[in-house]
Design goal:
alpha/beta, Arc Repressor Mutant, subunit A, Rossmann fold, 2 domains, seven-stranded mixed β-sheet, 9 strands, WHD_Rv2258c, Methyltransferase domain-containing protein
Length: 374
């Protein structure tokens, strides 16, 4: 009986820590969306009244958020005094994690992404009952932007070195005039990184999500690579045949309702012998209870975002975020690829890279759906 009580107490403590983590996540979401963190980072310490004036928010809510952030340890009290005179500051390390969109430590977008699931919970629960789904489009801009901004630093800072470490891929990309296909390009950060890293390339990004494609075009213009990055709202069935020298699918295969059909269409779009590089989650080879933090995180993404998105367009393979290597191999072979190789790219965030190869032009394109809000 005492052992049972001890076990129950441990479970209760774990749930309480999860509640506290949820409060932190939602308060981070608020600080991110309302501009409170960025004001403290860019304009310096502030009282509640000053922060509210800077950000066009209400001082009483600003005060409550500032105090909560100090109690939870994310802000420091720069000057003691009355509630109205108390001044709060954002430490540099916290500012990097929550405001620096170029840092590999930037995690505020994930609060944005999970925060976006709140309004969708009734629809998610209905989907769990009926087998339906909730698409990225239904989750809205917070989810779309959160995913894109969370991945952006990795493409900007690490993708070039990662690909340079795979000689056979790097050699293709360094060929003048090479045509790259970026399937499920989302907000275009992967396409832009490829264009910046390999100046002789032409990148074609395709996605089914029109808002993401519009964002990708703006991002390419701002980055100065719009002349070499073209983005289109395109179904996989509309890919041109045999025109690409290499293709990439960054963190999107697990979202596809019909991955075999999309992979077959990509295969057809590649010239004979050209590879497809897939980046997807570096989950364990097989399911086991008591998984590590990565498995826990990926099941969270799957339950609330990726699996419902994939299920929103029936008939669906229902893959989900936790796409294990064997599952990708099955999809690839069914699509006509003849080999799947794990590439020697390590220490790249949450992800693993694969190379898919085939010996011929492959089957004709079949209507598919490819999207990743990257």
């Amino acid at each position: 009986m005492d052992a049972d009580r001890d076990t129950a107490a441990a479970v209760a403590d774990r749930v309480l820590q999860a509640v506290l983590g949820t409060v932190d996540l939602l308060s981070i979401f608020a600080g991110d969306r309302l501009g409170w963190y960025r004001s403290l980072a860019h304009d310096g310490p502030a009282t509640a009244a000053q922060l509210a004036e800077r950000t066009a928010t209400h001082p009483r809510y600003a005060r409550e958020w500032l105090e909560q952030q100090a109690v939870t340890g994310l802000l420091t009290v720069h000057r003691e005094g009355s509630a109205e005179g108390r001044m709060f500051a954002l430490p540099p390390a916290v500012a990097e994690v929550l405001t620096d969109e170029h840092s590999l430590n930037y995690l505020a977008p994930f609060a944005r992404l999970f925060g976006a699931t709140g309004p969708a919970l009734p629809r998610l629960f209905e989907a769990y009952r009926t087998g339906g789904g909730v698409s990225w489009d239904e989750l809205g801009d917070n989810a779309r932007e959160g995913q894109a901004e969370g991945n952006r630093p990795w493409y900007q800072h690490r993708l070039a070195d990662a690909l340079a470490g795979v000689p056979e891929v790097d050699a293709v990309l360094r060929t003048s005039g090479v045509r790259i296909l970026d399937i499920g390009c989302g907000a275009g950060w992967s396409s832009i990184a490829l264009a910046e890293s390999y100046p002789g390339t032409q990148v074609q990004g395709v996605d089914i999500d029109a808002p993401s494609v519009r964002t990708a075009r703006r991002n390419a213009e701002a980055a100065g690579v719009a002349d070499r990055c073209e983005f289109t709202v395109t179904d996989a069935a509309q890919l041109p045949e045999g025109g690409f020298d290499i293709a990439f699918a960054f963190e999107c295969v697990h979202d596809m309702p019909r991955p075999v059909e999309v992979l077959a269409a990509v295969r057809r779009a590649l010239r004979p012998g050209a590879p497809l590089v897939v980046m997807d989650e570096a989950v364990a080879q097989e399911f086991t209870p008591h998984g590590d933090d990565l498995e826990r995180l990926m099941y969270g993404f799957s339950l609330f975002v990726c699996l419902p998105d994939g299920m929103s367009s029936p008939p669906s393979a229902g893959t989900g975020t936790v796409m294990r290597q064997q599952t990708l191999q099955e999809y690839a072979f069914a699509a006509g690829f003849t080999s799947v190789e794990v590439l020697p790219i390590e220490d790249f965030g949450f992800w693993r890279f694969y190379r898919l190869d085939c010996g011929g032009a492959g089957p004709a394109p079949v209507a598919g759906r490819a999207h990743s809000p990257r």
